Amino acid sequence: MKRIILLFVAVTMMACGGSKTVRVSKKVIKGNWSLNTITYSKAGTYDVTLLNDASKSCFEGSTWQFIPNNNTGVYSIGKYACESGDRHFIFTIDEVDKTTGLYDFLLKPTDEKGNSETNKGFRLSLTSLSDTQMQWQQTVIVDNQPFTISMNFDKL
Questions:
Q1: Record's superkingdom (predicted)?
Q2: What's the mean pLDDT in 5-15?
Q3: Predicted TM-score (pTM) above 0.85
């Protein structure tokens, strides 16, 4: 009887926690990152506002901090011609496909205390994550065609 109860408790605990892959990803993402380059899947000049905040040129060179134990973070824009300062957010990493290693990454802007000012978030794909580099992608439809924005980070 004890073994059955112990087995039931173990299965319940495993079902409640995130997958091991997601937990490992949160460990790797922890810390400070620099958003170095933003690229587009199609050549051309585009007027893109990222995360409903700023242009590509403002985001390139921004610094990001991820605190996985409470799923919060902050990014800082410091370029001269941009509205500089800290932007706070909460994030979640959800496993999408174990074989491809792709994840859904949800980023939601908040105030300094972690309160969401709107009910709006941004769903991105965490397409690559290593100890030193990370890539997010967002695909949108432009002129009835998929258009992918890639954001490339380096760990500081």
A1: Bacteria
A2: 35
A3: no
Hey, how many other C-beta atoms are within 10 angstroms of the C-beta on 25?
Answer: 21
* Domain contains 110: yes
| Assigned token pair, 103 | 């994840």
Is residue 132 scored above 60 in pLDDT? Answer: yes
What does the pLDDT read at residue 137? Answer: 93
59, exposed or middle or buried, with CB in 10 Å at 0-12, 13-18, 19+?
buried
Average pLDDT, the chain: 81
Question: Is 62 part of a structural domain of the chain?
Answer: yes
Query: Using 50, 70 and 90 to split pLDDT, how confident is the model at 3?
Result: very low
28: alpha, beta or left, given left = phi > 0 and alpha = psi -120 to 50? alpha
Instruction: Assess if residue 5 is contained within a domain.
Output: no
How many domains would you assign to the chain? 1
136 neighbors 150 (Cβ within 8 angstroms): yes
- Structural domain span for residue 143: 19-155
